[in-house]
Design goal:
Oligomer: single chain
Strand content: 25-35%
Number of helices: 5
Order of helices and strands: HEHHHEHEEEEEEEEE
CATH superfamily of the largest domain: Jelly Rolls
Largest sheet: 6 strands, antiparallel
CATH topology of the largest domain: Jelly Rolls
Strand order of the largest sheet: 3-4-5-11-6-9
Number of strands: 11
Helix content: 10-25%
Radius of gyration: 18 Å
CATH architecture of the largest domain: Sandwich
CATH class of the largest domain: Mainly Beta
Length: 200
Amino acid sequence: MNAKSMQDNDGAVTVPAGLGAQIRDLRKAKRMTLQTLADAIGRSLGYVSQLERNLSSVDIATLHAISDTLGVGINWFFEADNKAPISERDVVVRRDKRRHLHFTGSGLDEELLSPNLNGPFEMIVTTYPPGIATGETAYSRPTDQAGLVLSGEIILELDSRTYELAAGDSFAFSSGNAHRSCNPGSVEAKVLWVISPPSY
């Protein structure tokens, strides 16, 4: 499914089942109120509320504004396949139905393993191409985080300490620790992250 296939002749997009919930879950994970999102995209509080409940349509420009405000690419809302059985939708994420994000600025790729962002934690797999880092400087988030290096190797910078980690190594650190990670090797690296509370 993509944005173009949902666009009507007047430029509006019919909200597919699950899109409103995706917007709501991501907004809450960002600790953002309905009013803050409404103000940021220049729409009314009532409109955003109805959109999150799949009661309103959305145009491409508005969806782009929502994506920018929530810090994701517009593809975030379309790359998830919502045709999973209802009995699985909030419990299971099949490998071929993961939500994907590609950060064009850094080259990082991320896949959301959690079925939604409503629970006490989220799971993400980050793919680091050779030589790629999460940023130029360390940063902190109001979350507890843990990880497992699935393949390759990474360097984890945590406050004033540096750790060289290889496949099979795991780590954990508390909210507020400034951190940065990078792939110093010549092959791709993958890391499974567990973050609490969800903050994507």
